[in-house]
Amino acid sequence: MSISEPLAGSTHERIKIVTNDWTSQIVMSNIAAIFFNEMGYKTSFVQLKTDVQWNMISRGHIHLQLEVWEGTMAAQYQKLMDNNRIIDLGNHNAITREDWWYPAYVEEKCPGLPNWQALQSCYGIFSKQESKGKGVYLGGPWEKPDARRIRVLGLNFIVERVSHGDQLWIELEQAYNNRKPIVLFNWTPNWVEYKYSGKFVEFPEYSAQCETDPSWGVNPNATYDCGNPKNGWLTKIAWIEFPNKWPCAYQVAKRINFTNELIAELVYWVDGLYLTHQQAAQQWIKTKKHVWQQWIPPECRRDSMTIYD
Ligand code: TMO
């Protein structure tokens, strides 16, 4: 069924889609934009770090975020939900994890891994010239207070941060080619697990109490003495007015649903095969019709749409 009557909602006000600094989020945003444009809505991308996006989306300066990860963003998400500043568009059917990670060969030099306590004695293999004997943990621009976790768990580490996700993989590749010990932030689903074998560090099991109750956990005087969730959710959020302004975009955004496998594959197209974000989005639309067809309800289809061709 297709329809030629005018599309419901605003076709002149742009839907501002936030893009962050890791691949899957950017490609997914490009995919959503193609759907919205095909239906007749205008879109633009607003490139932001995750830490500044919360205020922007609650004020309606941006309108859609397709990847909110539990491991690094649960607290800000929950605050805006509790204050009715955003709406939740439903989880992806994916299980996520975000935490410290190392390539498999590191275990030879640090027996006891993946248990975090192994890092108490073998921090030295992760040191760099400028770290004065301390281990270096390479973090991304997201995460929770890692310096605090290091302190409360009594680890002899410092945090070094890259400013864009892509830099993590450059450093990982260099270390990997020289079998140099490295421990860095990683997550799943991602493409890294296809290219490199490795493991997450097993910190004390996550519990919400760990972040609020100092007496909980291995350090009785401090919060954050635990890892990130191992079976985390991945959800989507929108500005509270989104459904009224762009009803069909809302219907589609609610239905957008990526599994672990779908995410890993489309990230690989960019980070492994070097397609641009835009090319990956177009290829995805072209080859995954069986996946996205049901995301577009009949009343939101238009005669003019070309993605069905
Ligand atoms: C939010 N991230 C997937 C980079 O951890």
Throw out a few tags for this protein.
single chain; 309 residues; alpha/beta; D-Maltodextrin-Binding Protein, domain 2; 2 domains; 5-stranded mixed beta sheet; 3-stranded antiparallel beta sheet; globular; binds trimethylamine oxide
Can you summarize this structure?
The protein has 13 helices and 11 strands.
Notes on the protein architecture:
With 309 residues, the chain is of the alpha/beta class. It folds into two domains: 159 residues, 3-Layer(aba) Sandwich (D-Maltodextrin-Binding Protein, domain 2); 115 residues, 3-Layer(aba) Sandwich (D-Maltodextrin-Binding Protein, domain 2), CATH 3.40.190.100. The chain is 36% helix and 19% strand. The chain contains 13 helices and eleven strands. A five-stranded mixed sheet has the order 8-7-9-5-10, sandwiched between helices. The chain has a three-stranded antiparallel sheet with strand order 3-11-4, sandwiched between helices. The radius of gyration is 21 Å and the shape is globular. It starts with 14 loop residues before the first strand and ends in a 17-residue tail after the last helix. The model has no long low-confidence stretch (mean pLDDT 96). The structure holds trimethylamine oxide. The site of trimethylamine oxide has 8 residues, from loops.
